[in-house]
Amino acid sequence: MTAPVETAPVAETTVTTYLRPIDRDGLMAFAEKGRNNPGSRGTNVVKTVCEGQYRTLSYVGDHTPVVVDEPLHLFGENTAPAPGEIVLAALGGCLAVGITAVATFKQVRLSRLELRLEGDIGNPAAWGAGGAQKKPEDMGFQAIRVFVTIEGDATRAELDEIVQQANYFSPVANTMRNPIPFQIALAD
């Protein structure tokens, strides 16, 4: 009969994986370019084509079209997100870009970044098709809430500072917060 072999306890280790980083040197060069020309602007171009009912395809560059529809209760086919949901997705994407950029600038590695966006919106005007008479400021999103789950090699206070800085400088968030010139006309 052999004696039992004693084994040393195995220490548990925690392995943290980080999100795929962006090019910090490229970010710093982009930031310098902005400091040197603070009035610079670009133009985003989207072509939206209606397929029928409320389903549309929006073409952006050479990417797969962004599909938009309305739910069944709003007379759509419910084949894709509604326009308001796409707006929230754009805001979430922009905030995530900003959070990633600010974290990279501050040399904080992120291991998790998730945003949950909620927007209170109604359509009593029925898109202007005979519904309630509303003023523009009383239509569209009336409140938006963003909840950020973020983890990385920084304190909670530092991570909150990153989120707040990204929010302050977010082009999409600022588009939603601030009135901007808007025009619509028939194409030639």
Give the SSE layout.
Elements lengths: L23 H13 L10 E6 L2 E5 L6 E3 L14 H23 L4 E11 L22 E10 L3 H14 L1 H7 L11
Antiparallel strand pairs: 1-2, 2-3, 4-5
Helix pairs in contact: 2-3
Describe what this molecule looks like in 3D:
- The structure is a single chain.
- By secondary structure, the chain is α+β, with helices and mostly antiparallel strands.
- The chain is 30% helix and 19% strand.
- The chain has 4 helices and 5 strands; from the N terminus they run αβββαββαα.
- The protein has a 3-stranded antiparallel beta sheet, with no helix packed on it.
- β1 and β2 form a beta hairpin.
- α2 packs across α3.
- The longest helix is centred in the middle third of the chain and has 23 residues.
- It is extended.
- It starts with 23 loop residues before the first helix and ends in an 11-residue tail after the last helix.
- The model has no long low-confidence stretch (mean pLDDT 94).
Task: Summarize the model shown.
The protein is an alpha+beta fold and 188 residues long.
Poorly predicted segments? none
Number of helices: 4
Summarize model confidence as the mean pLDDT. 94
Radius of gyration: 23 Å
Strand order across the largest sheet: 1-2-3
Q: Which percent range fits the helix content?
A: 25-40%
N-to-C series of helices and strands: HEEEHEEHH
Query: Describe the biggest sheet?
Result: 3 strands, antiparallel
- Class of secondary structure makeup: alpha+beta
User: Termini, distance in Å?
Assistant: 96 Å
Shape: extended
List how many beta strands DSSP finds. 5
What is the beta-strand fraction? 15-25%
